[in-house]
């Protein structure tokens, strides 16, 4: 199963109700295809960094979708058709989240077990262990 | 670009430590990765405020040699900035 983050920007001249209905409409598209809407995040009205279709502002909406990937194609097709959506971006995040989880786990293990070990190693002198032994052997020969 | 007022705390400040005599002595504080220090695992492209601190006035991505970010985090940062640009959260270029 894949997790996607679908961000889209709604034109600033659309009314509040139509934004609401657009969100439910798009969510229904995804759920009908067998996906699950994990989260709907309405960031709200924001200034655009550059004009898009001569708009300088936009309503940002982020949907977190869990599914197989086929519903994303349908979702994007819908968003292309709807005029109120001036920009959309879909990002697959499950792999990134997995990686972040791995890092976190690694750090937890390190903190639990190896935290002291690494610190001691750093404080040790830079002479490798093998060099020390060699010196002693040479001394015996002489 | 040169006419614009310089923003404080940008490139100039972190680039060089004052007091270098004749340019010979370089006592520069070791730059460290801010994301490693904060234990950031994933850089969110929606966090425009964070990303803008790595995008100077011109709109380019701040290089690693200046910000001191480690390679893995710089990679994450670069993709996040590129995503944010497409989402109109960050400008592509400004002049």
Explained architecture:
- Chain A folds into two domains: 2-92, 2-Layer Sandwich (Alpha-Beta Plaits); 96-125.
- Chain A has a four-stranded antiparallel sheet.
- With 142 residues, chain A is of the alpha+beta class.
- Chain A is built from four helices and four strands; from the N terminus they run βαββαβαα.
- The termini of chain A are far apart.
- The radius of gyration of chain A is 27 Å and the shape is globular.
- Chain A has helices at 16-32, 70-81, 94-123, 129-141, and strands at residues 2-10, 36-52, 55-67, 85-92.
- In chain A, helix 1 runs antiparallel to helix 2.
- By secondary structure, chain B is an all-alpha fold.
- Chain B has a domain at 31-95: 30s Ribosomal Protein S18.
- Helix content of chain B is 36%, strand content 0%.
- Chain B has five helices and no strands.
- Chain B is flat and about 45 Å long.
- The termini of chain B are close together.
- Chain A binds chain B through residues 7, 9, 43, 46, 48-50, 52, 58, 60, 62, 87, 89, 91, 96-97, 99-101, 103-104, 107, and chain B through 39, 41-42, 45-46, 83, 85-92.
Helix and strand topology:
The complex is a heterodimer of chains A (142) and B (95).
Chain A: E1 2-10, H1 16-32, E2 36-52, E3 55-67, H2 70-81, E4 85-92, H3 94-123, H4 129-141
Antiparallel strand pairs in A: 1-3, 1-4, 2-3
Helix pairs in contact in A: 1-2
Chain B: H1 11-15, H2 34-37, H3 48-52, H4 64-67, H5 71-86
């Amino acid at each position: 199963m894949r997790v996607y983050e679908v961000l889209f920007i709604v034109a600033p001249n659309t009314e509040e109700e139509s934004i609401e209905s657009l969100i439910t409409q798009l969510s229904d598209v995804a759920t009908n295809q067998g996906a699950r809407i994990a989260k709907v995040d309405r960031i709200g009205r924001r200034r655009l960094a550059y004009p898009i279709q001569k708009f300088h502002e936009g309503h940002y909406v982020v949907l977190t979708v869990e599914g197989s990937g086929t519903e994303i194609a349908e979702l994007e097709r819908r968003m292309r058709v709807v005029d109120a959506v001036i920009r959309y971006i879909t990002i697959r995040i499950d792999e990134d989240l997995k990686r972040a989880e791995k890092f976190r786990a690694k750090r937890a293990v390190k903190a639990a077990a190896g935290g002291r070990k690494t610190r001691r190693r750093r404080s040790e002198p830079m002479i490798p262990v093998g060099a020390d032994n060699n010196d002693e052997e040479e001394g015996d020969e002489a | 670009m040169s006419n614009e007022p310089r923003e404080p705390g940008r490139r100039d400040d972190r680039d060089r430590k004052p007091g270098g005599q004749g340019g010979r002595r370089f006592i520069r504080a070791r730059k460290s990765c801010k994301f490693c220090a904060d234990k950031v695992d994933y850089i969110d492209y929606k966090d425009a405020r964070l990303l803008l601190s790595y995008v100077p006035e011109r709109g380019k991505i701040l290089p690693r040699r200046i910000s001191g970010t480690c390679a893995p985090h710089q990679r994450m940062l670069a993709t996040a900035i590129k995503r944010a640009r497409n989402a109109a959260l960050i400008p592509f270029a400004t002049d």
